[in-house]
Every structure is written in structure tokens, then in C-alpha cells.
């Protein structure tokens, strides 16, 4: 009885395969639309079949093992025909194995269905993950485009600022050259023109400008200041700061002068007046006294003290355009989040 059932089941499986093969090899027996539907369905189920092929291969391996067992059982059956007890034991063992095989087969089918369902869930999660990543990439791409636009704007501002700085440096160098040429006739020990921190410094010694303790400019000093004023009249975009400096020798109070603060401030003021009377707009001039507190040399020798007794006229080109660029950059940076 067992052999008949098992043989019937084995005969049933090839029959199904034969039926499927017949359906595939005889497309003329169905309508064209039916055939196209079958092809579409076959394509749609291909992915599921691929996932199930692994399970099928395992099943085939198990079935092969079962076939081997059945072959062995048939051999045992022939040998145990004479011994009914052994035949019965073999039959019971075969039935047990068959039952286990059937149970294993059912579990494999269930596991296959579960594996397919899990795989579909994984595909769904991957698709959702991919959509999220694409959205993030879109956001990053938009941010990158904005960053590129900001960078281009900053580069344009930097170019503008670099050009403005170059023009400012050129203006300072031109101013130094004009002032140096105008004051070329004066002794370099008494009058020096130099660049410092983007400004033109005209340093005039006390010997050129003043008598000791005096706050009134001598005629030779007036000549130098008039030549300087002639240059400044042509350079309308230059601001002028006049700084008076002294050595560290205390000033004896005399003629309304209390100390070195008064002396340095009054000398700077007198020079400022001479520049304005020579045609320089008063609004461009600032006069200040620095007393003894910004020396250029140590007050330890008569020569060094003489170097500290000086007046410095600081010429600064107006940088309105440059400041506007800097303000625009600062405002743009502050507006960004």
C-alpha cells in the first residue's frame, strides 16, 4: 500500500511538469492575448521564482535523499519478504520516514512563503529608504547650488576689494612721490617722507620748524609747509593729521606754556593754521599734541632727544569707496543664517 501511494505521488509530479511543459510548448492552443498575459505574469513572477529557486534546490536535495532511502528500502523489502517481522519493522520505519519527509516538505513550503514575505518587506523598506535618500540628495544639491552662488558673489566682492586696495596703494605711493618731489630741496636730516601702515608720514625736525621752546614756525619751516600745502590742494581726497612731539626734558612754564603737552599741541596747532592759510581746507586737518610719549629713539643722548623733538604730518587718502565695500561685505555676512 505504501509503495502504491508513493508511486502515485511520484507519478503526479512528472505529470504536472509535463502539463506545464505542454502549456509552454503549445502556444498555438491558446489565444494570442492569453499567451501575452501568461508572458506578463511570467515576468512579474520571475523575481518571486528566483527567490524560491534556492528553496526548490534544497527540496530537490532532500527529495534525492529520500529517493536514496526509498531505493534502500526496496532492496530491504526484497531481502525481508521471507521474514514478515523484519518486513513489518521496515514498513513501519519507512512510514515514519515518509511522515517526517512530508512534515519537512510542508515546513519548507511554509518557510519559503515566509521568506518571500520577508523579502518583500525588505524591498519595501529599501524603496522607502531610497526615496528618503533621494530627498536628502535633492536638499544637498540645492544647498550646494546656493553655496556656489554665495561663493561667486564673495569672489566678485573680493575682486572689487582687491582692486580698491590696489587703487588705494597706488594713491598712497603717488602721494608719497608728489610730496617727496615737492620737498626734495630740504635736508634729509630735517625732513623725511616715508610710508607706514598705508599712510604717508612727513617728519619735520624741530630745527627746521621752531626755535627751542617756541610755538611759532620759522620762515624756513613755513616754506616747507607751503610746498606741502600746494601738493595737498591738488590732492583733495587726503586727510591731514598734525602731531607734535617732544623729548622727555620737562618744559619750564613760560608764555602760557605749562608743560610738554602744551608745547606739542601749540606747535601742531600753528602748523595746522599755516596749512589752512596756504589753501588746505580746515575740515581735512586734525591737530594733536603727543608730548613725550611717542618717541622714535631713547632719550639718552642729545642726538636722540633731537630726533624725538619733531612734528609728524600724517597724510591718509580717503577710503570711502573701500569702506563701502567692507560695509557691504559685513552686512551681507550678518544677514546670512
Secondary-structure blueprint of this entry?
Elements: H1 2-25, H2 32-79, H3 84-182, E1 191-196, E2 199-205, H4 206-209, H5 219-234, E3 238-245, H6 260-277, E4 285-289, H7 302-308, E5 310-317, H8 320-335
Parallel strand pairs: 3-4
Antiparallel strand pairs: 1-2, 2-5, 3-5
Helix pairs in contact: 2-3, 3-8, 5-6
List the defining traits of the structure above.
five-stranded mixed β-sheet, alpha+beta, 337 residues, 8 helices, 10% strand, 60s Ribosomal Protein L30, Chain: A
Tell me what you see in this structure.
The chain is of the alpha+beta class. The protein has 2 domains: 2-133; 183-324, 60s Ribosomal Protein L30, Chain: A (2-Layer Sandwich). The protein is built from 8 helices and 5 strands; from the N terminus they run H-H-H-E-E-H-H-E-H-E-H-E-H. The protein has helices at 2-25, 32-79, 84-182, 206-209, 219-234, 260-277, 302-308, 320-335, and strands at residues 191-196, 199-205, 238-245, 285-289, 310-317. Strands 1-2-5-3-4 form a 5-stranded mixed sheet. Strand 3, helix 6 and strand 4 (285-289) form a beta-alpha-beta unit. The relative contact order is 0.07.
